[in-house]
Amino acid sequence: MSALNAYLDVAPEVQAALNENRPVVALESTIISHGMPYPQNVETALRVEAIVREHGAVPATVAVIDGRLRAGLTPDEIDYLGRKGREVIKVSRRDLPAVVARGLDGATTVASTMIIAALAGIDVFATGGIGGVHRGAETTMDISADLEELAMTPVMVVCAGAKSILDLGLTLEYLETKGVPVLGYGTEELPAFYTRQSGFGVDYRVDTPAELAAIWNAKRGMGLAGGALVANPIPEEFSMDKAVIDKAIDQALAECAEQGIHGKDTTPFLLARIAEITGNDSLDSNIQLVFNNVALGAQISKELCALRA
User: Fold this and answer.
1) Reported confidence tier of residue 4, pLDDT bands at 50, 70, 90
2) Which residues does residue 143 pair with via DSSP β-bridges, in sequence order?
3) How far is CA 160 from the centre of its chain?
4) Which of 28, 77, 149, 303 is catalytic?
5) pLDDT higher than threshold 50 for residue 1
6) Of residues 49 and 249, which shows the higher confidence score?
7) For position 271, what pLDDT does the model report?
């Protein structure tokens, strides 16, 4: 076990499931503190956990509380993060040492959730969308730490593709360079978060949770480093019109540049502004795609446990 586990607390229910080869799905906490207002954020987080349970798995919401890495939270702890909202530090890999050493609270991004999930021994993590290469990154070098984490950390990440505020073509090129398999669930095209199509292809189309589990099991069995990305399209009934969302993204990007917003503040600003521009239609779509992803994550985790029985 890693020495880093001295900083880790795994909830008893989560640890029991892992010990008994029962399915577990990791969940991030940035969506709670930075994704939407209270109490909607807490209601959504608890509903996400309930969906994981309905599909036969144990939820492990991940965060940092009082400087402790946490895999699995109580409803009261989720409510605590939701009430504090943006007072909670948004924590990626670079932030973990300082936040832990200072005994602070942290809402975990995709990257830091992967780190804590891997430390706890959780294989599957379901989220909304990953970060990636930002538009104009050839000048700004603004590339999400999520991509580097996928190259290093052994967790299968289920998402609705990369956020459509990004340069999706460059994001795929970066993942290819790092050897991260991009698996389209029931699709040959990378979903673009709010919409089902992007115009960019995935590495492999996979049509069942069992095959996704088998691919992951083979990757781990061969000792190949890093994670895998499962791109699960938003359900058709919640997919937004591409022209509408593209117009909102363009407007939000222009405002972001005008206000000089950059770094880790960029994505929260853009997502919030797009929600405002679309009359919260984008937020509703965001919530539904997360629900869809956690259900698939639970199914994959169940199939992995069956393979390892």
Assistant:
1) low
2) 133
3) 9
4) 28
5) no
6) 49
7) 76
Sole residue written with tokens 């939820």: 59
Cα–Cα distance measured from residue 266 to residue 191, given in angstroms and rounded to the nearest whole number:
21
- According to the model, what pLDDT value does residue 2 have? 43
Residues of the chain by 3-state class (helix, strand, coil), percent to 5: 55, 15, 30
Concerning whether 247 is annotated as a catalytic residue, the answer is: no
b/e map 165-196, b = 16+ CB within 10 Å: bbbbebbbebbeebebbbbbbebebbbbbbbb
Nearest CA to 199 out of 230, 175, 167 is that of 167
Report the percent of the chain where pLDDT is more than 90: 74
pTM assigned to the model:
0.92
- At 140, phi and psi to the nearest 5? -90, -20
Nearest to 304 by CA among 10, 55, 21, 15: 21
- Is residue 28 annotated as a catalytic residue, yes or no? yes
Tokens at 5, concatenated:
């586990």
The set of residues, in sequence order, having a beta carbon less than 8 Å from that of 27 and lying 6+ positions away, is 45, 48, 49, 52, 59, 60, 61, 62, 113, 125, 126, 127, 294
Range scoring the smallest mean pLDDT among 7-11, 177-181, 264-268? 264-268
Q: In one letter, which amino acid is 29? A: S
DSSP H helical ranges for the chain: 12-19, 30-33, 40-54, 75-84, 96-101, 110-120, 137-140, 145-152, 168-177, 209-221, 242-258, 266-277, 281-308
Return d(Cα 164, Cα 249) in angstroms, integer: 8
- Span 52-62, average pLDDT: 98
Q: Are strands 24-27 and 124-126 parallel, antiparallel or unpaired?
A: parallel
From 49, 90, 149, 163, the catalytic residue: 163
Q: pLDDT confidence of 270, banded at 50, 70, 90?
A: confident
The answer to whether residue 269 scores a pLDDT higher than 90 is: no
Q: Which two tokens stand for residue 218?
A: 């083979």
